[in-house]
Description:
The chain is mostly beta strands.
Amino acid sequence: xxxxxxxxxTAIKAFLSLTCLFLALYSPQGMSGQIPLAWYASxxxxxxxxxxxxxxxxxxxxxxxxxxxxxSYTLSNLxxxxxxxxxxxxxxxxxxxxxxxxxxxxxxxxxPPVLSATDGTYTDKVVVTWNGVSGANKYNLYRCxxxxxxxxxxxxxxxxxTTYSDTGAAVDTLYYYRVQACNGGGCSSSSSxxxxxxxxxxxxxxxxxxxxxxxxxxxALVSHSITSGCGNGFYCPKDNVTRAQMAVFLLKSIYGGxxxxxxxxxxxxxxxxxTAFAAAWIEKLAADGITSGCNSVNYCPNKFVTRxxxxxxxxxxxxGASYxxxxxxxxxxxxxxxTTFAASWIEKLAADGITxxxxxxxxxxxxxxxxASIAVFLVRAFNFALATSATAESVTELKTxxxxxxxxxxxxxxxxxxxxxxxxxxxxxxxxxQMLALLNTPDSVANDFWASADGARIVFASDAPNLVPGDxxxxxxxxxYDAATGQIRRISVDSQGQQANGPSYSPRMDGLGxxxxxxxxxxxxxxxxxxRVADVFxxxxxxxxxxxxxxxxxxxxSKTASQHPAIDGTGETIFYDRLDxxxxxxxxxxxxxxxxxxxxxxxxxxDGFWLNNxxxxxxxxxxxxxxxxxxLIAATTPTSxxxxxxxxxxxxxxxxxxxxxxxxxxxxxxxxxxxxDGKSIHWNDYSSDRQSNSRIDELEDxxxxxxxxxxx
Length: 712
């Protein structure tokens, strides 16, 4: 091919005067630095296409871009704050001859602005502002639904100023705003996102709308200056309460929101130095006789408070350090026997009308206390006046399964109360019609459907490429359907919204629909993922963050693939299986509050034979663990023995082994699922569940009773 700088063949000289390059701003949809270009077509019949040249100095171009026989192109992924020089050539049909350059055009690409948005400052709008940028005369503003660029859609507005009042923002919805600086020929890359939201007149926290079940109690704590939330306009109602936070909650409830304890000495508890968070509050709580710590020398400030521990602390705060409740009868709650830790305190809590339990006659004594529940308990214990609103639900520890949510597979009559922490596995045919309409993707598989306790959120896996914008990884992903918004979002992403570079599958969720665990073969969901095997990840819905939880017992990357995750209803403990260093499959647990991985399965049976253990399941309250065990003659040789079902009571360490029901060992994915009350274990092979004609809907349920449940 000839040199366009020196050669201009006669056959295409005629159109050179027509290749007059011009630039135009098209308000491009991309968010990278870009320049949209167009040029006049040649009138020559011998033109086969065009080449685009550009560089950072006049006449000094990089390798050309072959545009083909088109007369427009958008240069993208450019560096902000630089001037680019651009020219076009044409080549003939045979691609043997290229014209000389057209006229050269130069363009300065602005730098992106720095943007900020108001966080609940206004009830009628979100005000977005940014700095003016040299060389820019317009700005494209985007309202995004997450930190991911793919959630931004088209520009919200094209503006000449540097401020915008977004009156179209929904109330109590967190948005992530981005802006581009543009001039006559192109736009910078987008700014970093900045979140903002429009508040309700009756709402203090973004994550506690008026419709939230504990809104009235949480707002009551605000009005009494007992809480200011967890930061950045949030209350974090689903977060568990630590023992340090509990000290602050209790003392402010006793002495008033303006109370400030004496300075800490740092000598009361070994693990609470004077500089520790809430040290002064913890020492005051001890001085008042409400606590003596978690043992003789420590307070354990970062451990979560369980509901049984809360009963003791709350009643001492209410009645005084010397208070002792009447003996327990063991007949108030199904899961609180007369010998259960804090049984008398729990029953007194119920007698005072402070608790009605967690549902179905249970109290859930070992479940961690969350920030929403502590608000309700404090309001009832100290008789704080509730906030009132025509739209707010009455305060209760329970959510009610209403008639419109029973179609999501919740086996209940309208009005039946369920604990917040019980998720439900459901079939494709039981999905809400609105969700089914979104899943209408031919030739794609959707499976592993799990619903939160109230049916408002449903997690699943699918290889469909068109459920969300920007799904280009061509592998299975994990998705979340939110009934409140009627939308599907992809959650097998990193904490910045970047899609996974490998398949993700086997999603499970806690009862609140806040914590989702899944398996992924991707290595870009977290930093420093270098083990080249599948890992188990946790996605926090509220924080849109992803973390890896399949570590070995020493806190290092596991060397073997992790599979078959299970999660308790509170989202605190995760179980999964993987090969150990001896090549035997074992079940491991990961406690999120302590960030500790432990071996959870028995390596040998009662006769000393090595075991393969897989497919763990856990009851919603975390009390019972089950998995399948397979005896081995040698370290890696399975016997022909029928598999056994291992069941462990994690509260008492009692365990037993049952013979597997015969069909279980033949299932492709024999994952156990506990009943709501933990009294039975069920198996159904959902691995083939598709969007239509699923044979799974006709598979008979396989179940065994859990003999470790104590009947009353």
